[in-house]
Amino acid sequence: MKKLLLVLGAFLLTFSTYAAMNVNKIDPPFWYAGMSNPDLQLMVYGENIGDASASVNYPGVSISSVVKLESNNYLLVYLHVNQDAQPGKFPITFTQGKKKIIKEYELKPRAMAATEHKGFDASDALYLLMPDRFANGNPDNDQIEGMSEYKVDRNDPNTRHGGDLTGIEQHLDYFSDLGITALWFTPVLENNMEGGSYHGYATTDYYKVDPRFGTNEEYQSLIAKAHNRGIKVVMDMIFNHCGVEHPWIKDMPSKDWFNYPDYQNNFVQTSFKLTPHVDPYASKYDFTQMNDGWFVSAMPDLNQRNPHVYKYLVQNSLWWIEFANIDGIRMDTYPYADYDAMSNWMKELNEEYPNYNVVGETWVTEPAYTAWWQKDSKLSAPRNSNLKTVMDFSFYDKINLAKNEETDPYFTGLNRIYNNFVYDFLYPNPESVLAFYENHDTDRFLGEGQNLDLLKQAVTILLTTRRIPQLYYGTEVMMNGVKSKSDGYVRKDFPGGWKGDKENAFDAAGRSRIQNDCYNFYRTLLNWRKGNDVIAKGDMVQFMPQNGVYVFARQYNGKQVLVLLNGTNKEVNLPLKFYSEVLKDKVQGKDIISGQTVSLKDSLPIASRQSMVIEL
């Protein structure tokens, strides 16, 4: 009897163990045939799947290794996919004792050759928008049953408002009319976080668009329709952290999946001071706190030094390029992630897609710091970030100081802009630097005011200088706001994006006089610069401000554009002798802004805070 009970107990234990094994999800959900890197990581989620073995039976596909993690609810299956493996579906068999689970997996054909994926560059003008705050095209997805508790309340600047991908799609003609060539959305992936996480920077599923924005297929369709209008789409990604409601934090695959994993007893926040990357005297303490500390308690810091974490993130970026045909990536909090991992990621991505582009957020206002991060920088040698495009936070800083000043003979006003570009000698590739005067994390350029002349000067510089320009939604119709009230005040709803809005700034008839003045200014310059090689590819000659007027020229293949900005509150009759090296024998030119022909003999009257863009 005792022997019988032991046998029965062993049988029941075995049965219960096998019965508990399950496969709930596989990341990525499918892959693509013909990728240059044959190694594919499959992250398998499921109760007790860690005890399983795995096998495949498909020509050109084999298992390289199976990795059991500390949590028994994950399994990593590494496949080797030969270059000649054909698109198709095949079974993956998970075996645990006598129990088997078979899951179908698919290699899809690539929609285009890797070299045909072309990123954004200086010929583009990027328009940054927050999907939750732009337009609500599908109110039915405002409330999604089963998600973490949140509310939709447009009267609360810090909750979700209901904007979505359908709303963006319904206004593609608006972008076309304005002259935009690339859209950058703040992150669209699932943020199943308590409170709603409307901004999108707390990912809880790297392979799923947040259902309050739409579906993966709607995202894919939106991008295709944007492409039909000649508009690119840039995807905002975050490798540094995820959301605290991500399954990985609820059930950590391994202790080293995150930095400072014992966050409940020993929470370490980043210092937000990025200088240890370049400081020759930096302490290990300062570097580690900056690099490994969590951004906030709701955003766990991923450990990219873990090769499995690294592989997962890299594959995710490639998957979205192939699946959605995105035209570029904006990488959030770039310096907070591991330098070597990010450098290797960029190397892999550049090798797979040689004509692609990624811009990294590097929020320090010193040009030398930003230049240190750009690909092939001598400042960081022998290390190489492989990051083609960096963000010009120095320009942002200087132009927001200059707007409150008159231009004196030495340092203030537009002298700051002149001096900003002096330091372009630090950049390996100045035309691959992204410039802006505001974004979703800053005060809007207009603050709480409506000084259109100052805004016009900022727009003029941004759209004509040697940079990739990035605009922020709504400023073209005079949207303003400051962060001192809350982040939500610089992320207001676009007027007219919701049914029943009293104001509709998408149409000229719904805009005020000053809004139309502003919109038409943007529209004129944006459509003029579209396809303009002088701006996209031209050299730059700048002149020290004279009499409070800042002047620079763009030159390409015998064509020239002269940009003049009066940084004072008075009219200036500007002697043109200072600019003879670019004017040469030109006696007149066309001002793109006014549409008028202007005389270039001897001197040129320029009104207070006036901007001029003259084709010679």
Primary descriptors:
six-stranded antiparallel β-sheet; 16 helices; 616 residues; alpha/beta; eight-stranded parallel β-barrel
User: Could you give the order of strands across the largest sheet?
Assistant: 9-10-13-14-15-16-17-18
How many DSSP helices? 16
Uncertain runs: 4-8, 10-17
Query: How would the global form be characterised?
Result: globular
Distance between the termini: 104 Å
Mind telling me the C-alpha Rg? Answer: 27 Å
Number of strands: 26
Largest pleated sheet: 8 strands, parallel, barrel
Q: Write down the overall mean pLDDT.
A: 96
Report the portion of residues in β strands: 15-25%
Assign the structural class, choosing from mainly alpha, mainly beta, alpha/beta, alpha+beta, or little secondary structure.
alpha/beta
Helix content: 25-40%
How would you characterize the overall build of this protein?
This protein has 616 residues and is of the alpha/beta class. Helices cover 25% and strands 22% of the residues. A hairpin with a 2-residue loop joins β19 and β20. α13 runs parallel beside α14. Residues 4-8 and 10-17 have low confidence and may be disordered.
